[in-house]
Amino acid sequence: MEEKKEERQPLLVSGEFKDNDLLVPDTETLLPDSLDTITGVYRCRWYIIILFSYGSFIQSVGWNTWGPITESAEVTFQWSDSDIGQLVNYANIAFILTVLPFCYLIDVKGIRFTVLICGLLNFVGFAVRCVSMEPGVMTWTANAGAIILGVGGTIGFAAPAKVSSVWFPSDQRATATSIASLSNFLGVSLSFLLGPLIVPSPKYACNDTNINNSSTWSHVHHYGHIWEHNETNCINKVLINKEHLVTEIRYLMYLHAAGGLLFVLLALIYFPNKPPKPPSPTAAIARTQWTQGIKSIFRNHAFWLVVVAGSISSGVLGVWATVLDVNLKPLGITQLQAGYMGFWNTIAGCIAGFIMARFSDIFMRRMKAFLILLFSGAIISVVWFTAICNKYIPFDVVSLYASCILIGIFINASIPLFYEICAEASYPVSEGISGGILTQVNQLFGSCFLLVMLVKNIGVGWMNWALLGSSVVALPLLFLFPERYPRTDLDIVIEHRSSTADIQASENSEKLDPS
């Protein structure tokens, strides 16, 4: 159902516009004479963005399966810390290799076809992990599932700006992009809770335990690295709840597969390519041809400044959060504690991201200032977290939680703005291409982080420094970025002209009316 079109006057945008105000004048020739007859806003756009977001959400829940249950997975399947890290890395590498072909597919075949293909891939990636819980088999199926999920996540991660530009007017685009892009991180945050709540920590019995100089059996529950009975000097540990771990991990795999199947069914029922009428003037303009768009992107220095700034920070944070349990194990932080920390880190970032995107829609053309503010806060937060972990300041779990949550707020809140500012910097290149390259570079930095984990005996101390370095590098790149908003400017100017023409036509009609 089409909504009644209302006049929109964004804040901080006023005054008279002239012909030379258009930053992309060539595209104006592609527009029909009467904009009022071709633009429309439909209520179903909210269903579309929510369903698209759900697909991204469920994929990211599966993508981050193993990090939150590291200890349980390691003892059940005889994996190591590097095995856990590489499961995430295989998904990242698969994403890097396939994201641009899928972005081409969404431009050629449309949103519906591409979203359905990715949804089916995600379901297959979930289902293959349900085959067997035998350690040898699960090692293969978990890796295969990770690769398939990496491919299936391409559109959900790369195309939020594309979907919002097709369905939403200019003063709602950033908000819609925030819903779609942050759903990925919302899924990661839920996985930090869902995994540890369903899959318990390993429990051990101690054999040959030296208590009062006698050898005896003593059942001692072990949570992470904290023993209930600290006076017990355990020599040989025996896992006593492996069958329970296998059962609960299997249940978690089934739950993921059911979520993936639900998305496929809902998308089959209703997920159109586009609305009957475009929501904004620029949505009606044909984008640059795909190969020409790629060439244009590589020559666009301003675009690469924001791509690197956004990708290095969020790419490193994304994988840093998935191995938070590994990172904090030496500090005695349990699997469940790390899970809650990762959950609040991401959920707080999602809330902050939505708020920042809404501000960006209200106060148009101010994204650069918002991003600089966010990254200044991010640097301070990462310094605080690193100082606590390295015990440069007194160790305190509450402070560790607070600094971790602030990291998520400042870095994750920037993600929707980066999608939109990249689309602006590359316009009139398709939003699918700009989003695809942004996320491709994002995953590339994430994979580099995970590859470092393969270095023998490297430990975990470097992880926090890498996160700090990524934020420090991003800030000067943002200062260097020459801020411009050709897509938004074009929408504002054309809508202003259309409104002015309507007023003049109304005045002329009144003059001609003899009554």
Automatic annotation (TrEMBL):
One of its GO terms (cellular component) is membrane. Its main location: membrane. It is found in: Membrane. Keywords: Membrane, Transmembrane, Transmembrane helix. The chain crosses the membrane at residues 46-67, 87-106, 113-131, 137-159, 179-199, 251-271, 302-323, 338-357, 369-388, 400-421, 433-455, 461-481. It is a multi-pass membrane protein. It holds the Pfam family MFS_1. GO terms for molecular function: transmembrane transporter activity. This is Uncharacterized protein. It comes from Dreissena polymorpha.
